[in-house]
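WARN no homologs supplied; continuing
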Amino acid sequence: VQLQASGGGWVQTGGSLRLSCAASGSIFSINVMGWYRQAPGKQRELVAVITSGGSTNYTDSVKGRFAISRDNAKNTVYLQMNSLKPEDTAVYYCVYYSVSANDYWGQGTLVTVSS
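OK structure emitted
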């Protein structure tokens, strides 16, 4: 499985960005996709995940501001990020979990939120 992420960039506080991640290769219809992030000097943390059935889970700090969605026909997951804060600055990684619990990671896309 290969993951190609895009959509990162620079934005001012309160702005919005939309990340996309397209999966290719041996994609099973039942899977989980999501986003993690890693800020400088911090551990990688879960941002949001979504199952192929559409169930979602978010870390508390992004609830109400971020929305994860997916297009199963395109094997693509999206992360709409609104009301961005400087503490959202990080490299964002998309992840794909197969039914056998193997995980695959994208290359990361940098999001910078200026104050």
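The mean pLDDT is 96.
OK
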